[in-house]
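Please predict the structure of the following assembly.
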Amino acid sequence: MNNFDKILEKIEHQHIEPTPKWYFQFKNWGFWCLFAISILIGSMSFSIILYSVQQTDFELLSHFKHSKWESLLVFLPYFWLFFLLIFTLLAFFSFKNFKKAYKFSLLSILSLSVFLSMVIGTLCFISGSASFLERKFANQVEIYNSIEEKKLQHWMNPKAGFLAGEIIDSKIDTLLMKDFSGKEWQIIYHEIFIPPILELENGITIKVMGKIQSDNTFIAEQIRPWKAFGGQEGSKSKKKKH
Amino acid sequence: MKQSHHPIVNLKKNDCILFTDRELVEKSIQDTSFFACLYQRYENKLLRYIHHISNVSQEEALDILQESFIKIWKNLNDFDTDLSFSSWVYRIVHHQTISDWRKSVSFGKNKTVDYELHLKYTQNEDISHEEIETEKKVMNIINQLPDHYKAVLVLKYFEDKNYIEISDILKIPEGTVATYLNRAKKMFSELAQKQHISFFE
């Protein structure tokens, strides 16, 4: 019995059939889909990271007692960074399973996965879908605190020197402001820096840094607009949560 | 529908040359006579390759070839027509050989091989004593190289494969093939120098 006869006998004896074509096609499509989904979720994470960076009050860093680097760590969107890492790796893994993937070096596959996530993520961010996606996610996942909620928590802390709300009356050197919990505050300001784009008029939402003087009086050291480019009005966001 | 594996058409050995590899793959699924043609076409080349990269005995090489052809049979529908059939079978045989090699403790580097017997199995034509001696020396040095360097050297200089084919067989980028080949040649020369072996006498 020659070697081929032995092969034939084994095929016969063990009933070995060629695996059907659809199985291989399904497998290939599976990896393509996994790649596309991973890139999409990675892009979404990247766009939310950009949104989170945009919403970060970097001016606060100088007001923290810790070093700037330590304080910066507090602001990092760990959840989305983790998502980005996981789905970039998943995209990399699925690409590696493509039939011709071996033609590319590991570094170029990884770079491609990161590049695609960054480009699509940036486009999502520019189009404004990042904040929408982030809020949708926060509404769906109970344990997740949205960037907006974290921002609100931070700025509803007058004892620490952070206060935010809507202007309800404006006089020279004094504002009447209603914070997001509905409490009214008298904000006193004198010769402080106010960004030129900010007009202290009724209905405008602002954030104030300074010192609490009495139960409802706050001395402002800095006044800034609440809303960053592409962000949400604090008051609207709060209403939505209730 | 269940297919019979018994040959339907009894092809004579000479009839196999009428078909290309791709045609034989397509027809093999219907009739194993065509699969036999593929086996006959590649048997010697693949046995030689198994011997070169693993130093196994003839029986072990035949077992590896058997396992490889069963894998080829199972995966006939996955044969990528962008690839040459030759590269595809070399790839399967390479992985099977490496996998068996890793499983076997007594395999490979620590094994003493009768090169004359080994060459008798792997060469079709009569070879001179001088050629056997040269190949013995070459293989002794190649066997001291890391596996990936050994594979590229064997594919390039014993199997006469080009960079694209080596890339397809080992599933590495062509640039990596070039890098491995350069490093392997350098390492080969250094080892030959250390052992005072010259191939240009």
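The two ends of chain A are 82 Å apart (CA to CA). The interface with chain B takes residues 3-4, 6-8, 10-12, 16-21, 23-24, 99-100, 102-105 of chain A (CB under 8 Å).
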